[in-house]
Amino acid sequence: MKLDLKEIGQYTRARVQRKLTRGLSTKQLHFMEKVRKTRDFNKTAPKPKIIKTHLRDMIVTPEMVGMTISCYNGKQFIPIEVKHNMLGMYLGEFAMSYKSVKHGKAGIGATRGSTAVSLK
């Protein structure tokens, strides 16, 4: 919690380290302020507040640990409960924007043998 963003970058991957040394965007800095405010609010509130965001490229920092952040995947907001082993990863890695491909059997008319089968 007491580490600076640039100090956190030393313990992360090269892409994350580069992003942290160059500095976060204004949207990401605004999101960090929102995280700090809700962290203070959640200390006194009986029910913790969930933060919604579209920033899939936001890096998980120590300030976010223990919070619930809903990240938009293009269709809906996916709630993410941030844990300490998620540090240095992107929020988008935990809110999948596509479904995994599941192949089933062929439909009627898909193969030559299935054209002779009645539709009943």
Short description:
The chain is of the alpha+beta class. It is built from three helices and three strands; from the N terminus they run H-H-H-E-E-E. The protein has one domain: Ribosomal protein S19/S15 (30s Ribosomal Protein S19, Chain A).
List the helices and strands and how they pair.
Blueprint (H helix, E strand, L loop, with lengths): L4 H5 L4 H9 L3 H19 L6 E3 L14 E5 L4 E5 L39
Parallel strand pairs: 1-2
Antiparallel strand pairs: 2-3
**What's the gyration radius in Å?**
21 Å
Structural class per helix/strand content? Answer: alpha+beta
- CATH homologous superfamily classification: Ribosomal protein S19/S15
What does the average pLDDT come to?
87
Q: Quick one: CATH class?
A: Alpha Beta
Strand content: 5-15%
Percent in helix: 25-40%
Poorly predicted sequence stretches spanning 5 or more consecutive residues: none
Task: Compute the number of helices.
Answer: 3
InterPro entries: Ribosomal_uS19, Ribosomal_uS19_CS, Ribosomal_uS19_euk/arc, Ribosomal_uS19_SF
GO molecular function: RNA binding; structural constituent of ribosome
Keywords: Ribonucleoprotein, Ribosomal protein
Family: Belongs to the universal ribosomal protein uS19 family.
